[in-house]
């Protein structure tokens, strides 16, 4: 349940601010007697170490060296000029003072590289790295770099290497590095890469911005990227490459039209480029700006297995996949699911590369490593404007291609399977990506990822917000019988109302056929999932509009809601599964929908638009006898919805970017009524953030240059 987190977060941050500014120790008054009644400070203030004549690098290093394990090094506002590298130490956290703008600026053309061969249990948050790169490079199998989180950081500028090859963040043989909510910005003077991960495990890149900020400026001035995210490296003797990797909820943008300079063959080398990986999940990202040329592409994937590409939105180019003959990487493409993505080719015709979803295999591959291709699923992808699916292998039968809208299918060598594909094959990962929620009930967002090590029981790797850092725990996972979750999603909400978010999904239940299962969060992770209700009648509208989580009846317990069938014979309805804390009770909450094509493009928005404590449902639909376009809102009552028009004044961007980036939901003015916002148009048509602000019964349009709401799910 994301709703309400912001308010609680503000209170927590305010409390952090008060304690965060208590005098650091050591420093301050070293001769003063320690007050034994006061617990040792949890923070060390860099400002205490500022001394005339001492350079900033020495000052920062002195503060880091003075910090004890468990303490946080707090940077007061300012620009710290680094003429040499600093070295973070394990077991400490590093953060900007609350609300402070803190810049670590590297000196000289080459800037500064913060190299670490060992670093454990560290969170670095809120710092801006200007001309400063981070290299976390351990020896193979050393487990020397473990559980490092970069959160809400900014990386900009940096040295220009040949072919734009230098990365802001480089990982090698790391375990459990997370990049969360960070910005990677490269202007025309500083082209290069974003994050490069070489042969690392449990890497997560989530909710980060490459080439843009949350404001989504259409000029994309900081999108001079060769590649936003790279995963490479593999050891054929051990089978290890990048393993258990999640890329979820990021935006990567390349400045349109910049191509590559003459003589710089690889200065454009795909938005996300991955090879040699095992269990790579790429979920809910948005990519644009890479060309539909051999050098471009929103994603390039090859020589890997167990890859899940789900619910991403791509513009200007799509996905290129293949197996390349090689001495040092697996010559296979197995168990790959490319489903429910949206690809907007902007009307391109005649393109051969990245023109949708393309696969080919190098003819030199002789199959020493077994069959090159097996279990490839390409399904449910939406082709917005042009594009095609192309498969070129003599093992075409290994490909199942089904349910992709408006896409031409070309299979060059034999027929691919185009019907009766299994809805969720055994190898599919219904829990791909991360699940976000407040799982420990402290008012701050956490996330969990499902890990399936070879031959081991699966477990949840939980990243729990804790003070200035992250507590990482392994929770047992009982996730059998979840096949339907690949279609209907995994829902996060506080279904029993204890303040901790829980998980719900649909699947097979003993004696009941299909059912909804709920795994309640407790002190030690998720309890074994229990059946909470029969699945009930689902229809084509169920998967079309998805399953929604909200507290629709206002009893402080989250409920499920989806389009389905009610009564006998079944009529279309809003099927409400209200929680009583131990199970769901299904009732009809009426129908009265009036869809338009915009309903499908933008989807449903669930929040308390009327401000009465009950969640409501809004969407772009039709209103009135004439069916005029409107924001159609189904306002929750005691036992059903009251529907009304909340006005129109919808003014999306002219170039389709509003649909690409989606519409956000949140309370921008803090009056308790949820509002909507998106990158659209204002005034005489200039690109701005356009908000539809609720007064409890209708929306009023308002504009800003800034993004004020969290990105859409
Ligand atoms: Ca709960
Ligand atoms: Ca409820
Ligand atoms: Ca309401
Ligand atoms: Ca509001």
TrEMBL record:
It comes from the Bacteria. Keywords: Signal. InterPro entries: FG-GAP, Integrin_alpha_N, Pectin_lyas_fold, Pectin_lyase_fold/virulence. Coiled coil: none annotated. SUPFAM superfamilies: Integrin alpha N-terminal domain, Pectin lyase-like. It holds the Pfam family FG-GAP_3. The keyword Plastid does not apply. This is Repeat domain-containing protein.
């Amino acid at each position: 349940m994301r709703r309400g987190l912001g308010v609680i977060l503000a209170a927590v941050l305010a409390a952090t601010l008060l304690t965060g500014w208590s005098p650091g120790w050591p420093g301050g008054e070293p001769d003063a007697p320690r007050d034994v009644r006061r617990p040792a400070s949890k923070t060390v203030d860099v400002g205490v170490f500022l001394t005339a004549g001492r350079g900033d690098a020495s000052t920062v290093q002195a503060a880091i060296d003075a910090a004890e394990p468990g303490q946080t090094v707090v940077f007061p506002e300012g620009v710290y000029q680094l003429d040499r590298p600093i070295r973070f130490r394990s077991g400490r956290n590093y953060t900007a003072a609350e609300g402070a703008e803190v810049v670590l600026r590297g000196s000289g053309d080459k800037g500064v590289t913060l190299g670490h061969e060992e670093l454990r249990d560290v969170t670095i948050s809120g710092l801006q790295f200007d001309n400063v790169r981070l290299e976390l490079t351990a020896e193979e199998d050393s487990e020397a770099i473990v559980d490092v989180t970069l959160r809400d950081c900014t990386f900009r500028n940096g040295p220009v290497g040949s072919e734009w090859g230098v990365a802001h963040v480089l990982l090698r043989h790391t375990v459990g590095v997370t990049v969360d909510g960070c910005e990677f910005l490269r202007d025309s003077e500083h082209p290069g890469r974003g994050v490069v991960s070489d042969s690392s495990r449990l890497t997560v890149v989530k909710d980060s911005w490459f080439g843009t900020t949350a404001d989504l400026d259409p000029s994309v001035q900081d999108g001079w990227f060769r590649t936003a995210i790279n995963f490479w490296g593999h050891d054929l003797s051990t089978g290890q490459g990048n393993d258990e990797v999640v890329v979820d909820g990021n935006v990567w943008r390349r400045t349109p039209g910049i191509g590559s300079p003459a003589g710089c063959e690889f200065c454009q080398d795909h938005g996300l480029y991955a090879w040699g990986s095992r269990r790579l999940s790429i979920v809910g990202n948005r990519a644009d700006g890479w060309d539909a040329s051999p050098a471009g592409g929103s994603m390039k994937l090859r020589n890997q297995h167990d890859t899940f590409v789900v619910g991403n939105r791509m513009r200007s180019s799509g996905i290129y996949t293949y197996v390349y003959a090689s001495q040092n990487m697996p010559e296979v493409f197995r168990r790959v699911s490319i489903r429910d993505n949206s690809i907007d080719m902007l009307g391109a015709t005649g393109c051969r590369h990245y023109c949708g979803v393309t696969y080919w295999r190098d003819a030199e591959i002789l199959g020493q490593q077994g069959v090159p291709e097996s279990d490839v699923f390409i399904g449910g992808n939406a082709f917005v404007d042009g594009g095609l699916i192309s498969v070129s292998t003599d093992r075409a039968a290994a490909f199942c291609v089904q349910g992709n809208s408006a896409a031409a299918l070309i299979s060059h060598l034999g027929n691919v399977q185009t019907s009766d594909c299994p809805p969720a094959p055994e190898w599919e990962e219904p829990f791909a990506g991360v699940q976000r929620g407040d799982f420990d009930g402290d008012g701050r967002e956490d996330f969990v990822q499902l890990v399936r090590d070879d031959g081991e029981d699966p477990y949840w790797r939980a990243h729990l917000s804790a003070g200035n850092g992250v507590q990482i725990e392994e929770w047992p996972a009982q996730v059998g019988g979840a096949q339907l979750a690949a279609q209907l999603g995994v829902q996060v909400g506080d279904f029993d109302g204890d303040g901790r978010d829980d998980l719900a999904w649909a699947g097979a239940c003993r004696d009941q056929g299909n059912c909804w299962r709920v795994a309640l969060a407790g002190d030690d992770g998720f309890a074994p999932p229990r059946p909470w209700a029969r699945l009930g009648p689902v229809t084509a509208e169920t998967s079309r509009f998805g399953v929604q989580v909200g507290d629709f009846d206002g009893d402080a317990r989250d409920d499920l809601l989806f389009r389905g069938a009610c009564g006998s014979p079944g009529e279309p309805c809003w099927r409400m599964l209200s929680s009583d804390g131990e199970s769901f009770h299904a009732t009809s909450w009426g129908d009265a929908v009036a869809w338009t094509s915009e309903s499908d493009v933008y989807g449903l928005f669930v929040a308390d638009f009327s401000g009465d404590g009950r969640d409501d449902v809004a969407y772009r639909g039709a209103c009135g006898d004439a069916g005029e376009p409107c924001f159609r809102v189904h306002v929750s009552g005691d036992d059903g919805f009251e529907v009304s028009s909340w006005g129109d004044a919808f003014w999306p961007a002219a170039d389709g970017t509003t649909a690409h980036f989606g519409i956000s939901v949140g309370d921008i003015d803090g009056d308790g009524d949820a509002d909507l916002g998106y990158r659209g148009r204002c005034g005489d048509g200039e690109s701005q953030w356009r908000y539809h602000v609720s007064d409890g019964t209708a929306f009023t349009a308002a504009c800003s240059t800034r993004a004020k709401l969290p990105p859409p799910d």
